[in-house]
What we know:
By secondary structure, the chain is mainly β. Helices cover 3% and strands 43% of the residues. The termini are far apart.
Amino acid sequence: xxxxxETAARLLExxxxxxxxxxxAQVLGRLVPGDGSWLYRWDPNSTAGPNGGTVLAPAGMxxxxxxxxxxxxxxxxxxxxxxxxxxxxxxxxxxLMADGSVTRIVFGTDVNFTRRHMFxxxxxxxxxxxxxxxxxxxxxxxxNDPFGALFHFTGVPGDDVRTFPLAQPMRExxxxxxxxxxxxxxxxxxxxxxxxxxAGREEKEIDKLLCVTERIDESHVRVNYKMGxxxxxxxxxxxxxxxxxxxxxxxxxxxxxxxxxxxxxxQPLAFEYAVRCDVRDVRARxxxxxxxxxxxxxxxxxxxxxxxxxEVVVGGTGYLTxxxxxxxGKVRDCTxxxxxxxxxxxxxxxxxxxxxxxxxDFHGAYVTHGQFEHDLxxxxxxxxxxxxxxxxxxxxxxxxxxxxxxxxxxxxxFAKVSDLTLQDVAVCRTGAYDGVNTEGYGPCGTxxxxxxxxxxxGCTAEKLVLTQRxxxxxxxxIVEGCWFRDGIEVVRTGEAAVAPGTPxxxxxxxxxxxxxxxxxxxx
Length: 523
């Protein structure tokens, strides 16, 4: 039998005793204009708990017998009575996330959330269809908790933890890792792999979520990562088994944060122990912690933006995206205005940033923390560059960063940044930041770089200042085909002096307003 009713409330008034298996009801949804319509089927044997949307119980709440929403995996939250921000969407979201048959959750109206949610299930898409998400009246955040986003998706660390000293040195760019009991480690299992810290509290060359792809022997496995830094024998490794969250996509959201400080501040997304989780078309304003905080492997962040976060001075606040211990990520077509950072890589590797643009970016549009980042690529972006400059707590180190076709007003990499490559990078003095404290970076329009395998070609700036804090590179430092109005300064005194004998090749460079050719030289 087919029943037609105006609203879900009318559906629940149908006496259970008059219903039969196979009955279908269409809820027309005419009470609120544009709220859609839904089809339910009657299951006389179901005892599922009613949730106000996908599972409905008739009046009197019989022990068995439920109306179950008919869907192919996609459910609109409006079937829970969420027709706008006046009704919090928290219960609807929790119910839909708890239902494994729902793989796409659609929000067809503006919505407000009052709780901070943590989810451990994947294989789901949250589609806000361009509507506005707010957090008015949201529960207070914990202190110093950037993961306290409205939606925190996380994998689950396990109890299998292995801590051991390396019997042999670990080679750079090697993907075979030493681990005891390797023959019993499941193929394709995921592990959080880290090493003990050096002098700094977080000075670790590796802290990554890795997948075992081959068992070599009883003490070695191959993983999906080429180690970026060498490790000496005796360094203490820790392997912890993790069940990651996989294949989550969040898209098409206009997010509006709250005024106030840390407690009431709000941001939409955090991913932790996550694999192949993508974010698209999230446009945020007035956030506190990063709009998107990641601890991920294999992901895309695209067409996202942040304008005017409410805090940019406190460390960790006011970012569009912060990526901690991430691998194989791509950030593209994103923008920020007056933010702290557009993109921050901390302990990350093999990632790319493409066609992203920041303005009002004095705090640094593109930064790395200096926790041994390596093999990062930036193509076609604009905004301030600052690599590995967060201090010795993290190691002040990075390696093999490449920047191509970039514009900005500072280029800073004076810490232990090895094998930095800059091609067609223009650093210009704009005057927009005259009078601002430059924190020892030199005047606007300057490159301040570490002469350790540095290679610059086709770049322009007011001035290039070369210092040296590391001697790791095997290739020479080369600056060629560039223009620096005020020339090239090679620092020869102090703790950051360029060491005598450092392979430094300067050729075919121009200086001065008219660009007289600078003599070629090798130092």
